[in-house]
Amino acid sequence: MPWMELDVATQRQIAIALSQNPDANISQLSRVLKVSRKTIYKWRARARQAGPQVDGAWARDHSRRPASCPWQTPPATEDLVVELRQQYPAWGPRKLRAVMEQRGAVHLPSASTIAAILKRRGLVDLEESLKRQEFTRFERSEPNALWQMDFKGHFAVGNGKCHPLTVVDDHSRFALGVRALASEAGELTRPALTEIFCNYGLPQCMLLDNGSCWGRIEASYTAFTAWLLRLGVRVIYARPYHPQTKGKNERFNRTLKAEAIKGRLFGSMEQCQAEFDRFVVTYNTVRPHEALAMAVPASRYQVSMHPFPRHLPPIEYLEGDVIRKVGPAGYLSWGKQRFHVGRAFSGDPVAMRPTCADGVFEVFYCYQRIAVIDRRDGSCRQT
């Protein structure tokens, strides 16, 4: 049998037996065994110290683990990491470390050490960790410059369904509200948003997706979006089939699902709202946000300087605008032509302003362009 097919312990025992021969040449033996002379002498010393052993235990590999490890994470710190992970199961190592720092932990391990602790304790979902990836972030320069609003996917509650309405500030990631609604209808959305406006004031813009609840079917508006425009809130629609346009709201909805909805059974809308309220407080004031350098959203948010008005402000236009009132069916008349601009504006005046193209006019409701009409062919394109 070739020499190298033997296990290490057997090799060592044979090597010591050969080295104890009075005529043994240690240098030649080291070349044959392909080990240093120092190693052979170490084996000999170990064998002498062990004395006569039938099983040759001295020849087996000894543990290379140091007798002590001064930089090893203390058990109490590991227990704190596990406790926080169990309290916030959806939070990663960086967030957990930030919370430990906030609580004045005596020993503050690195994020990589916390990740190793979580993995060692079986608290890491490999499938979920593979989903995490870095991406470029964009944000408005100040609070209330833009709010993102969306409906989180519905889920069963008792005998019905809950449709969570979520509103997030683009700059601070501050959760302005999560409302448990029975449907996505405007008659429920408007009172819920009114409550948020009363608490935090009005934003400059609101970013909405292209869902029917916001009236983006066939590029039309609804009474709900017209109400926002009357309040002085500019409405921006996300690109169709591009949810990343509303990335902050989409990410917030994922967090809402993971930390407040997943794995829970709700018997009523009141229970849903109570859980949402608890989640919002934690999200805004406790949960560190990686996009904010591990600060909490509440540290970057300020209430809007534009309070919610008791009454809708009057509609005013520029001097020189062509003003027409929209009829009940959503049409306006201009000369002998009729143009459909949307039922949402029925009963209200709109303004036409000329463009660089002869006969082409932009139609404005308050300060937002809602359509472009071409008097040359009588067409109207809603925007």
CATH superfamily of the largest domain, by name, is Ribonuclease H-like superfamily/Ribonuclease H
Number of helices: 11
Query: What is the average of the pLDDT values?
Result: 82
Ranges where pLDDT stays below 50 over 5 or more residues in a row are 133-137
Strand element count = 13
Distance between the termini: 85 Å
Order of helices and strands: HHHHHHHEEEEHEHEHHEEEEEEE
CATH topology of the largest domain: Nucleotidyltransferase, domain 5
* Residues in β-strands, percent: 15-25%
The level 1 CATH classification of the largest domain is Alpha Beta
Report the structural category.
Answer: alpha+beta
Main beta sheet: 6 strands, mixed
Choose one word for the global shape.
elongated
Rg (CA only):
35 Å
How much helical structure, as a percent, in the residues?
25-40%
Report on this model:
This protein has 383 residues and is α+β, with helices and mostly antiparallel strands. The protein folds into four domains: 3-59; 75-131, no CATH class; 147-299, Nucleotidyltransferase, domain 5, CATH 3.30.420; 322-382, no CATH class. The protein is 33% helix and 18% strand. The chain has helices spanning 8-19, 26-33, 37-50, 75-87, 93-102, 111-120, 126-131, 186-200, 223-230, 247-261, 269-285; strands at residues 147-151, 155-157, 160-169, 175-181, 205-208, 234-237, 322-325, 331-334, 337-340, 349-354, 360-365, 368-374, 379-382. Strands 1, 2, 3, 4, 5 and 6 form a six-stranded mixed sheet that branches. A five-stranded antiparallel sheet has the order 7-10-11-12-13. A two-stranded antiparallel sheet has the order 8-9.
